[in-house]
Amino acid sequence: MKWTNDRSDNVDDRRGSGSGGGMMVGGGLGTLIIAAIIFFLGGDPSAILSSGGGSPQQTEQRNLTPDELKVKDFVSMVTKETEKTWIAIFQQNGMQYKPPKVVMFESVTQSGCGTAQAAMGPFYCPADETVYMDMSFFKELEQRFGAKVTEFSIAYVMAHEIGHHVQTLLGTTQKVDQLRSSGRYSEADMNRVSVATELQADFYAGVWAKQTDNREHILEPGDIESAISAAEAVGDDNIQKRSQGYVNQEGFTHGSSAQRKEWFMKGYNTGDIRQGDTFNELLK
């Protein structure tokens, strides 16, 4: 992936800050839950978020290493390119884009949705319109799930999470929340809505990749393949096979590996935000 010269001011790097920014949550999460839920890209982290419980864990404040500073530079660059692309897309459709914040942390920090832990993987919190990133997730993605992790696969994950921010700005997140809180729908129905939500975020990530490459020519050979590898690695079917040895489609919450690839590539091939109706009649 080729780097650009632009950097965003919306990145808050909390690594090395000493306190981790929050309360350390105690144990109790089973390894099956960790394998099957925590390492999904995106989604609703509320099941493993906590606003308390546990003791403050103080760590020594430290300076970031040169490699860590380079990672921040990269995240700031990708964040800026998402801002430029989505500002342009929203303007083209008569709307105004409000960029999210991006928080980089290690171990634990506080979010508007509760306590964020590294084991949860990257996620978007609509309450404070912020993407939370612990970069250790990508080691798990490579070592545990066999994905090929490159700079662009990291950019894809960020673009997916910012896709959830786009959903919040467009009102999709609020409609899903209304469905969930109404109590009128079964767990299986809400799982289908969750899958549609995640696949749309993958679609938006593909739109971002296409539009940004058209403007900045960021893509290099193998980049799209690495994004697909990351998307497929955390498909519901792949994770279920690894965690429980079989696939239960009714339990899908993010979409199969094939679906995640399909919708990312549809976003990339069309570059058109209007082509991303993964819900069909679900929210109408």
Automatic annotation (TrEMBL):
State its location(s): Membrane
Chain segments annotated as transmembrane: 21-41
Q: Where is the composition biased (Basic and acidic residues)?
A: 1-16
Q: How does it sit in the membrane?
A: Single-pass membrane protein
Keywords, alphabetical: Membrane, Transmembrane, Transmembrane helix
* Residues of the signal peptide: none
The segments labelled Disordered in the record are: 1-21
Q: What is this protein called?
A: Neutral zinc metallopeptidase
